[in-house]
Design a protein that fits this description.
Layout: E1 2-4, E2 7-14, E3 34-40, E4 44-48, H1 54-66, E5 70-75, H2 87-94, E6 97-99, H3 102-114, H4 119-122, E7 141-144, E8 147-155, E9 162-167, E10 172-174, H5 188-193, H6 197-208, E11 213-215, H7 227-247, H8 251-261, H9 268-283, H10 289-295
Parallel strand pairs: 4-5, 5-6, 10-11
Antiparallel strand pairs: 1-2, 2-3, 3-4, 7-8, 8-9, 9-10
Helix pairs in contact: 1-2, 8-9, 9-10
The structure holds zinc ion.
């Protein structure tokens, strides 16, 4: 828990759902840990990125309920399904509104459209009904007991139209999947974007907000939330990816080399999906990158 006056935040890291299949090194496929943040005053609270499956919604909901606050809003950082498919269940349980930027809402509709081709194949029967109910708010701002919570568009990260939640009074940025913390980064969408420069620009925008603390959408719960360290390590991970893309000739080579450099990073499923997408797009220049990226999950 971190606190400023009557305002505080706390983070819950949810376990990944069960999944079939194995990685090239023989490990079972498992999604990354998923972090939700509760920002709260003495009575009200705002929740971020409530996860994907019914099970995740239940355990997160129980954790939120134990805080005994009135959840007014649920903020979604970006349109990937792992960050919002469970939003409806949480919104219903707490009588909360779901909020996001314009760009994120458009991306959420895209994820609902690809859900049967991707998410329901990976996690059949585990994901609840997920209509997009998110709304925008004036000036991308939500008030929580007199404190401003500001949704900031930062552009391309692991998806298009990423946003982050800036809470100036806490020195906090809830960064979704723009910044990572001890977890392999999903770089698949960067293949279609022509590299990592747009992502680096998004990191600069987060840094310009001057946060002391960053909560990442995927983080190792044993690590702290120091903004300077997580920003530096996220930049370094992209630089390393660029280097390995030059020195490794195959997806498996990239996968193994990243594990060698980051032996303690969680989320090796995402590392493998990323490797397949990056090398798949490179090896099939005439084909649709979005289709290659999709099939690299399956
Ligand atoms: Zn994610």
């Amino acid at each position: 828990m971190n606190q400023a006056g009557n305002l505080a935040y706390d983070v819950f890291v949810n376990d990944p759902p069960p999944q079939d299949g194995f990685l090239p090194n023989g490990e079972p496929k498992r999604f990354s840990p998923m972090a939700s943040t509760l920002i709260y005053g003495s009575e009200d609270a705002v929740l971020t990125d409530p996860g994907m499956t019914e099970d995740q919604a239940r355990v997160l909901g129980d954790w939120v309920a134990a805080k005994d606050r009135n959840v007014t809003d649920i903020f979604i950082t970006h349109g990937h399904g792992d960050h919002f498919f469970a939003a409806g269940l949480l919104a219903e349980r707490f009588g909360a509104r779901v909020v996001a930027t314009d760009g994120t809402i458009a991306q959420m509709h895209g994820s609902v459209a690809t859900r049967p081709l991707l998410w329901d194949k990976l996690y059949p029967g585990l994901i609840p009904s997920s209509p997009v109910t998110a709304v925008t708010v004036p000036d991308n701002r939500v008030a929580l007991e007199g404190h401003d919570l500001v949704m900031v568009d930062v552009g391309h990260g692991d998806a298009e139209d990423n946003s982050v939640l800036h809470v100036p009074d806490l020195g906090l940025v809830v960064a979704g999947d723009v910044i990572y913390n001890g977890v392999h980064m999903y770089l698949g969408a960067s293949a279609a974007a022509g590299g990592f420069d747009a992502w680096r620009t998004a990191i600069d925008k987060v840094e310009a907000l001057g946060p002391r603390h960053i909560v990442c959408g995927h983080q190792n719960e044993r690590l702290d939330d120091d903004a300077k360290r997580t920003i530096e390590q996220t930049r370094q991970y992209l630089d390393d990816a660029d280097e390995l893309l030059r020195t490794e000739n195959t997806a498996v080579g990239y996968f193994n080399a990243k594990i060698e450099r980051y032996p303690d990073h969680l989320g090796r499923l995402i590392l493998w999906v990323t490797a397949r997408a990056l090398y798949g797009v490179r090896e099939h220049p005439g084909e649709n990158p979005a289709q290659i990226t999709l099939s690299s999950w399956l």
